[in-house]
Amino acid sequence: MASPHHLPLKRASVKTRFARTFLRALHNLNAGAAAQERRRRCRKIKLAAYASMASAVGPRRAWSRALLWRIRSRASLRRIPAAQRSNHHRRKTPPPRPRRPRRSRNDVVRGGRLDSDKAKELRKLVPGGKAMDLCCLLDETAHYIKCLSSQVEIMRNIADLFST
Fold first, then answer.
1. Structural domain of residue 130, as residue ranges?
2. Which of 24, 67, 104, 106 could be 54's S-S partner, Cβ–Cβ 3.0 to 4.6 Å?
């Protein structure tokens, strides 16, 4: 069987770039038997899958940029010692007062009621969604779902390949 570094690739599609970087990340994981170690490895696998997917898509999409930024910022926080990390996030000024949410012209009104609840939920699910208007949010969501389904397909194929 070929190692993940020497897979024959005919074209560099998003799926092949994802599979290559994900297999490389899986190859680098250490095998452990303890339950805590398995949970840690599961988190690493999940993180590797998201990082591979976002890097395969590249900076063209807002969700991939947000996901890569989140992964990199968590990695930089891990380098800060725990004692400094707790002081690192403390605010020296009082938190700002909450403002009333403004109605955006991108919010859809249905039956006289603002339909922003669904958009708020969607913004929570899509990385970087909080900073997008509704039109961009829907476009990024469609692309994100397409990439997630490709990720599931590739991971299922990898699992089938290694289980037989």
1. 13-81+124-164
2. 67
